[in-house]
Hints:
The protein has 380 residues and is mostly beta strands. The chain has two helices and 27 strands.
Amino acid sequence: MAYLVLIGTRKGLFTATSDDRVHWSVDGPAKLDQDGFTAVAEIYAAACDPATGRVLVGASTFFGPSIWRSDDAARTWDEPEHAPMAFPQDLPYRPLDFSETAGIDQPDSPETNTVKRVWQLAFGPGDRVWAGVEPTSLWTSDDAGRTFTFNQALWDHPQHTTWASGAGGPAVHTIVTHPGEPGKLTVAISSGGIYQTTDDGATWNGITKGITVDYGPDEAPESGQCIHKVTRDAAGTLFAQSHGPAYRADRPDGGWTNISATLPTNFGFAMVAHPTRPGTVLAWPVGEAMDRTPPNARIAAWRTTDNGENWTSWAHGLPDENYYGTVMRDGACTDGDPADPGWYFGTRCGDVWAAADDGHWHQVAAHLPDVLCVRAMVTA
Length: 380
């Protein structure tokens, strides 16, 4: 078998390849464009499609954001001739009304909506691609990421005025697909909540019932919760890490259940579900909101195999003391191998690790720039 890992950092895209998930060859930063500007670009989003070998990367340079595509597993790259996404010119500018009540000072903004950053890319069936963008918006491509259509239904949701920016910025940062359920998609929004469509984005329903907050006037708001990540297991159960506890939803319309009782802290960012084993999820807790380093300065993945009822530390091969790197919301993934999935994560210290299922963590890379996203796939 051969494996490819995409490592998006604040200073470009790095790639790692291996035949055994133990010994790795690292290359980068990649020059996605001819002039090399993307070698120092912020890479917040990447996506892999093992069925086709196609890879997409969202890069933000001083020329603005764009999406680069590779059809040969990150060997060569193409950028669309024109900007792949732009807000409708007649779309009224909508400031973040909730920011005033949340006590968050917003910087001066232009009077028009401008695509600032691509936070999430996800492949669908055929040539379908979804993109989550800052400012808070969802986009759809049916030509493999060359051009994108703005989803106005989510933008026009009546709860939009309750969405704040969060510390990272106002964005659709998580897109969860539902294989076998055409037209169904779940998205998570910075300080906005979780929304789901079952009609391919024509309408959206908030599904954040039961997720509480301790940073606002209402402990159980209808919307506006700060969601850090959502993942879906093989049985269709959703798991979420919020700015506070982790949660599980067997049926989102029935509400969410707190599953943080046996985690070392309530706070965290990344959460990844096993591709084939229902009820198995990994999380990377960090210290409480004002700390944001691993508990007791020991980096570890925490794993549940029973839908979050019990969590255990998985740290074999990881530094056992004095480690302060945090795993961000897209800094972890699996390679999706149904027989023996590999797990991967990177930290803000620039370190990346990989492990076979239930195995030993092996270092993929060390001392890279701040790791923002990690994506992996089997290539042979």
